[in-house]
Amino acid sequence: MERAGPQDVAEQTLDGGNVNAVVRVGDTVRRSAGPWTPTVHALLAWVRARGVTCLPAPLGRDDEGREVLGWVPGDVVGWPAPAWLWDARTRAQAGATLRAVHDATVGFDLAGAVWRSPAHAPAEVVCLNDVAPYNMVFDGTELVGLIDVDMASPGPRAWDLAYLAYRLCGWCEDTPAPDDAAPAERLADLLAAYGADAAPTVDDVLGTMVVRLHDLADWTDAHARTTGRPQLLEHAAMYRRDAERVAAGRA
């Protein structure tokens, strides 16, 4: 893997970073690398070479061994969320963008790949595994990028759609949506934008959402222990409460 040039610009610590310390240096982002970094950078190069440039450009590592990515200009949604985040137009952009990314990952060579997150069957595409408003970059109200892709791994399309729907369609307890539409109506918009020829069914997405939330709760519990951050335990408890509500709604 190539090396980025020497650092000659002051570092700016970026918000977020619940898993990694993330800094901006000029027009680059730098974060801790791991055994998965060569695979993720190869994936980014593969997707971008297919014309899907909403993902960051992979730029190798710096002299400190950190991965270097291109900076994606724009703003990430904060909380409380702006009203336009809940618009049908935002769901349409999100669904179409995720479909483009998923389709561009088809054919990526999985032989010898090292992933940070577990793979899930069936491996229809490479999932980003954390597609949510806090990893979506907007220019005004225009979705222009998806970031924080180091958790990517192979899986079914429903795996990414389930978490995006959880965060963008009104099922998440800590990001209450307005009452102008039911979560199921928002999900229908999201799947329509993704494309009926490849989108999973509503029931598949909701069933996957329950599994994902329990999986995420277990991971968050473990992360809280290994990082000494007990405040994360409440996040895990919320994921389990939300999973129970989604499951009850499907019954």
From TrEMBL:
Molecular function per GO: kinase activity
Keywords of the record: Kinase, Transferase
Pfam families attached to this UniProt entry: APH
Tree of life domain: Bacteria
Record-annotated Aminoglycoside phosphotransferase domain positions: 84-185
Name of protein: Aminoglycoside phosphotransferase (APT) family kinase protein
Record organism: Cellulomonas iranensis
Organism lineage string: Bacteria, Bacillati, Actinomycetota, Actinomycetes, Micrococcales
